[in-house]
Design goal:
alpha+beta; HIV-inactivating Protein, Cyanovirin-n; 2 domains; four-stranded antiparallel β-sheet; three-stranded antiparallel β-sheet; elongated; disordered N terminus
Amino acid sequence: MYSIPICRTAVRLAAVALLSSSVRLAHAAPAAVEARALYGRAISFAESCTDIAYFGYCRVEATCTLDGSAISTDAETQHTILDLGQCIGYNKSTEQLTWRSKSVSRWNMGYCAPCSQCTIDPDTTEMTCDCSYVLQSKDHTSQLLLSDHVYNHEGLLSCLDVIGDPDPNYSMKTTTASTE
């Protein structure tokens, strides 16, 4: 008679222990997760995309290969835009742009404000943003390495969360496939 409740309790305790250990591992994982090969054929964002640029309103645009191969191949490419507001947000206490612990849909995202004037180094994928305030004495810059959390999967840019899982939200495709 007592074996069933004890068994259920043991299973619940094991599940809680497993969950807590995975949470500890997730928090122990470095915030900068290399996106290379974490999802399907995804390789480095910088290697599989070209014409990487900041598009305004916290968006990045690029031309990426459809099969995730290096851009130097004869692979088909397409132009794509990623709303980075899905993946990053402004942390008021640190006054820096930071990766979200969990991505949000495009309908719930914010912009990079007050860090809205940004540039992206296409070779390193480092995004540097000027953060402007009414009190100019607080003006500063914020930097993020996009290749740590942005990946190309089938020609679309998406984000990885802080533990390296793919972003389930839709990435916006702007044009049809073309060859270069």
